[in-house]
Amino acid sequence: MRFCIRIFGVFGQALYSKKTEKKIEYKPEIIKVLRKIRNAYTANPYLGLCYWFDEFEKHVCEGHLVICEELIKEVQEQGCQLFSHEQKFINNFKGVLYLRKGIDHQLKKQYSQAKSNYLNSLAIQKSTGYKACEGQVMEALTLLEEEELSGQSDPYLSEIGNKLTMVRASEAFLCSRLESMNENHCQIILAAVERNLVKPIIHAFKTGDALSRMMSMATLYRFKKIKDVDVLLNGLQDHNWFVRWRSAESLGQYKEYAHLSVSMLCNALKNEIDPEVSIAIAGSLEKVGNSSATSALVLKLDDSDVDVCISSVNALSKIGNRKALFKLYKSLDGNNSFSNNYVKLAQKAIENIEKRYPLPKIIHFDTYRLLSNKKSLQMTNVYLKDESVICIARLSNLSSDIRLRLHCTKYDGTTVFQKEGLYDELKIDASTFSSIQNNLSDNSLNPFIELHNYEPETRIDSHSNQEEKKKRNFF
Fold it and tell me: H helices then E strands: how many in the chain?
């Protein structure tokens, strides 16, 4: 009876030990982390692995080493499919875990355990080829040797533990998978969006097919900060209208890149034939543009799509300069086929432009004949042609080598315009003068001449009050 009981006892212990080997008792905090990863993996395998990488990095930095060990077991034993070159990510993390364990042992003055973990970490990091990680382990080993000799700990050891160097595995993993045409690029892009990783999305745009480019550009719009703005600028030239549309909308979010994007947006707008893309470009110029976009926006005032015209008018209302006034005034002549709403918007744009560019009151015109008598030149009219000042004057007894200076000032004495040179350098050619003469009696705005007249009441060597009309830029 005793013999039988003894045999049963041994056999029973063996059975019990086999059962306990298969049974894993997870702590609640481990269950929470594993459940998060597994749920993500079920929905999107790429996202699940990104969660694994991110969770390991988080917990090893926080010193939750038991959780990290379970994460290593999870990725190795639960069938997560990794390519051979991706296994380096896992090995890198193993090496980091050994390093963190070694630091904890050294802080407790357990030098032999610390050295053992450091050496294990060093061997792993050498095999992965990540030099930065290997260098950090070498630093810890050096600190250990110094502490063993001096008996004094270095505070830098804790700093190493708080700033562990690891490969950015999530980004590298997703970019690596995008290189293969057998992978689901859409799910990879979605995983990158979920983890706020811009680099894989840009990689998908540069290397993917039309669907990948469309999806990448659509998702980039969600990010408020992109360092590689070139991908958006290149998207403006894509043959797919959706990519161009989303690129234009995204550029409207980045005022800090306006010095790069405005000229590209203007060129794109001039050549764009799709109305939806044109509307998006005009909207982005309204947000990040400046007066340099006026010419491109004016071209779209003749577009056959009224919504394109309205978006251009709205942009001009906010950023346009006086170069837009001729086309805007023309839209008020009653001959356009657009809605009353468009006319009201054009009126508002004219008001805003003229308010932004008020006329400086020029009260003082002095023209000096530097080497002769002032009275040999008498001013009769001053015109502004585009961005030039044209003076119509009566001349007498002037030779071609006489130097002249025109000096215009405001009330406060601030110089608005000053020009000096030889008579032959300052005079305009006959064709320009003929055009001016033909427009002197024409009060309407002309797209080529666009004259605005100032008529000094007295001779040039005296002060004259000028009536405020339309402002021009003086050069």
Answer: 22, 6
